[in-house]
Amino acid sequence: MTSTLPALGTLTAEGSALQAVLLDMDGTLVDTEGFWWDVETEVFGSLGHTLDEAWRHVVVGGPMTRSAGFLIEATGADIGLDELTVLLNDAFESRIDHNLPLMPGATRLLAELAEHEIPTALVSASHRRIIDRVLPVLGAEYFALSVAGDEVPRTKPHPDPYLAAASGLGADPVRCAVVEDTVTGVTAAEAAGCQVVAVPSVGPITPAARRTVVPSLDVVDLPFLRGLMTDLR
User: Fold this and answer.
1) Strands 145-147 and 2-3
2) 180 - beta bridge partners?
3) Which Gene3D superfamilies match (predicted)?
């Protein structure tokens, strides 16, 4: 986990109960959810197996161990989880080295949060080696903290990554806004007690209590995020 903790004075913006913003990476800030499926299809193709498109919604947004394990079982591929994980991460790194598109509104939102000194963390189910490749493109300076899927005892859909991020920032999870793109990530954030903004990337996500669904990051800004905390003031 990389961490540069903000001064305590920055934790609560004046007039707002919002203490921190925690953002998912794949499919939320970078347009890479499709990359993962392409890589999985490519790697399993090299092993002599064709992936069923219906499985895409099963593996999206989850930790490598879950998605890779599911695909091994579903295809009957003769490969171990550890070996497959290396192949998938290698193929993904190669792909993002050539092209890493950001989601619309991502850079603008990160710059706005930084301008107003809102503590911000990157919270991903991807492994540290992947996060460290992506951070320079996103702007590592925008994040006080990052949490990788292989750095917590249980990753998404468990609450551990978001609880770790909130703790690292010295924030109350209830006063953190999370931005996510999958049901898996939303489940993790809600289990941690956070207010969630869902920007669906692959599968649909329905609105619920403490969950707001929006079409893109273009409609998410600091006033929007502060407004989610109205009942906590």
Assistant:
1) antiparallel
2) 198
3) HAD superfamily/HAD-like, Putative phosphatase, domain 2
